[in-house]
Structures are given as structure tokens and as C-alpha cells.
């Protein structure tokens, strides 16, 4: 705790001035406003975290992500979906924590507001009392000064009437002088009494001003410390969220390390294989030479699927003019 600085630096030479007190009050109001702004920031950040968490949760549970994968990569994807779900839940929990911190900030503001109110009521009352007593003192001073001037005029009138023969006029002047002297004495006493009262009020105001300065400075120290700690806690929560998320993603990385490309390929082959013998080659088949359709050595054999019978035998010899006819069908153009 630093030494008190408020009580030694917020005075004014003008007894009616409250500029120092007003400056402190303005600063405290600004501090309370700053706390309110941070409180609103926490609430909005909580809304952001909650919205992000719910969107991420919906994405994790509703959106397909490699659903047809198999074996080791499938297991890694399942871990990935689980950890994304967990990260989403962490963001939703963070939102709740931020709202709790915002609530604490609001309670702190209200507590300081009530504490300040008590001091402000005392200071407002002493300020009014000081202003009222100062006015009474100044009025008493004016009255005293006027009575003094009246007495001086009465004395001058008596001096000027020393050579007057009329005794009644002199008597009146002496009576007026005596009356004015009495009025001066009375106003002087009243003026001195008001000055004394004002001085007591001034001392009381100074004492209350010092107390207020000390109370307000203690409040400001408390506010700065609370605000600083709240901000520190906030960034710690954000850092912890990052650490927690990274730990969850590390589980995904570990599951990915367990993935085996060879095992996944072998798994697919074992689950979906269709056979190990490829189709035989399609051989050339001469329409007129079925004997040439023999299967080459080393090739797959099968039943003779020749589609044509033996070639027709001509009824005529090559020297016969009708040699070109086969069953009345001419091979020559006419």
C-alpha cells in the first residue's frame, strides 16, 4: 500500500471551491465506468464462446467427416470427432466461467458504489454547511462595515455641530452617535461569532475532506487491484482453454501416429477382394479355319465355342465354268 497522495494534492485556496473533491469524484466515476465496460466485454466474450462452442458441437455431431473410412484411419477419425466434441464443451464451460467473472465485477462495482455513497453524503452536507456559513459570515461582515461607516458619520456630525447653539440638535446627534456605537459593538460581536463559526466549519470540512480523500484513495487502490486481477484471471482462462484444446488435439495426433497405410490397404483388400484370376485373352477366330483356333500353350482352356461349321465342298472342279457357283450362289458379279 502506497502512502496517501489524495489528501495532499486536491486542495484549493478558494474556501468555496470544490475543484479538488470534484476531480477525485470524476476519476472514481471513470473507474466505475471502466469496470462496467470490462463487465460488458466479459458478457459479450461469453456469448461468443458459447455460440462458438454450440456451433462446433453441432458441426461435430451432425456433419459427416470421412464416415466411409476403414480400419486405423477410421479409428483416428473417431478420436478426432470425440476430441472436437470435447473442445466444444470446453468453450461452453468457458462461457459460463466468463459470465461468473462478469457477475463478480458487477457485485464489486455495486459494493464500492454503496461505500462511496456514505462518504459523498457526508461531504455534500459539509459543503452545503460551509457555503451557508460563509454566506452568513459575509453578510455579517457587510453589516458590521456598514455600522462602522454609520458610526463614523455620526462622529463627524457631532464634531461639526460643536458650535451649534441649539442644544436639542446636539442631543439628537449624541443619541445617534451612542446608538451607532452600540450597533457597531453588536455587529462586531455577530461578525466575530460568524467568523469563529466559519472557522470551525472550515476545520470540520478539512477533516472530512482528508477522510474522504483517504477513503477514496483506498477504494481506488482496491478497484485497480481488483480490475488487474480480473483481467489477469481472464487471460489465464483463455490460455488454459488453449492448453486444454491442445491436449485434446494431442490425442488426435497420437491416434494418427497409430495409423498404418499398409494395414488399411490390406484391410480393404481382405474385406472387398473379388478374385485372383484375371479374364482370359480374347483370341482371333478365323471364319474359314476353325482348326487355327487352338488355344496357345499356357492359356486358359475351355469348351470349343466355334460358331461356324465346315466350309462347303464345291460340286465342280476348278476347270468347270460353273466352279464359281456354290449351291446356285455365284461368287462372280454378273
TrEMBL record:
Query: Any idea which UniProt keywords this protein has?
Result: Coiled coil, Cytoplasm, Membrane, Phosphoprotein
Q: Which Pfam families match?
A: FCH (PF00611)
Topology with regard to the membrane? Peripheral membrane protein
Q: Where is this region: Disordered?
A: 293-324
Q: Where in the cell is it found?
A: Cytoplasm; Membrane
A GO-annotated cellular component:
cytoplasm
Q: Which SUPFAM superfamilies match?
A: BAR/IMD domain-like
| Domain F-BAR span(s) in chain numbering | 4-264
**GO molecular function list:** actin filament binding
Q: What does this protein do?
A: Binds to F-actin. May be involved in regulation of the actin cytoskeleton.
Q: What is this protein called?
A: Proline-serine-threonine phosphatase-interacting protein 2
- GN (gene name): PSTPIP2
Amino acid at each position: 500500500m502506497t502512502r496517501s497522495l489524495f489528501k495532499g494534492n486536491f486542495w484549493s485556496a478558494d474556501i468555496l471551491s470544490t475543484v479538488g473533491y470534484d476531480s477525485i469524484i470524476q476519476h472514481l466515476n471513470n473507474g466505475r465506468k471502466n469496470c462496467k465496460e470490462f463487465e460488458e466485454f466479459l458478457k459479450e466474450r461469453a456469448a461468443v464462446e458459447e455460440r462458438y462452442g454450440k456451433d462446433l458441437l453441432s458441426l461435430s455431431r451432425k456433419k459427416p467427416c470421412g464416415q466411409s473410412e476403414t480400419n486405423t484411419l477410421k479409428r483416428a477419425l473417431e478420436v478426432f470427432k470425440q476430441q472436437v466434441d470435447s473442445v466444444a464443451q470446453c468453450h461452453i464451460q468457458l462461457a459460463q466461467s466468463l459470465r461468473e467473472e462478469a457477475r463478480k465485477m458487477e457485485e464489486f462495482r455495486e459494493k464500492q458504489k454503496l461505500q462511496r455513497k456514505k462518504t459523498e453524503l457526508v461531504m455534500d452536507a459539509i459543503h452545503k454547511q460551509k457555503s451557508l456559513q460563509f454566506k452568513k459570515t459575509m453578510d455579517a461582515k457587510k453589516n458590521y462595515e456598514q455600522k462602522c461607516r454609520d458610526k463614523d458619520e455620526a462622529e463627524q456630525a457631532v464634531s461639526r455641530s460643536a458650535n451649534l447653539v441649539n442644544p436639542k440638535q446636539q442631543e439628537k446627534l449624541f443619541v445617534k452617535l451612542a446608538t451607532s456605537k452600540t450597533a457597531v459593538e453588536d455587529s462586531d460581536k455577530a461578525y466575530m461569532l460568524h467568523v469563529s463559526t466559519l472557522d470551525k466549519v472550515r476545520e470540520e470540512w478539512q477533516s472530512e475532506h482528508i477522510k474522504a480523500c483517504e477513503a477514496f484513495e483506498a477504494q481506488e487502490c482496491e478497484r485497480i487491484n481488483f480490475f488487474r486481477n480480473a483481467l489477469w484471471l481472464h487471460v489465464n482462462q483463455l490460455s488454459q482453454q488453449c492448453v486444454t484444446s491442445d491436449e485434446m488435439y494431442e490425442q488426435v495426433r497420437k491416434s494418427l501416429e497409430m495409423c498404418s497405410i499398409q494395414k488399411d490397404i490390406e484391410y480393404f483388400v481382405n474385406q472387398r477382394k473379388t478374385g485372383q484370376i484375371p479374364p482370359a485373352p480374347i483370341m482371333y477366330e478365323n471364319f474359314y479355319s476353325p482348326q487355327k483356333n487352338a488355344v496357345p500353350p499356357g492359356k486358359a482352356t475351355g469348351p470349343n465355342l466355334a460358331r461356324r461349321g465346315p466350309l462347303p465342298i464345291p460340286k465342280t472342279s476348278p476347270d468347270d465354268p460353273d466352279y464359281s457357283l456354290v449351291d446356285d450362289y455365284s461368287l462372280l458379279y454378273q
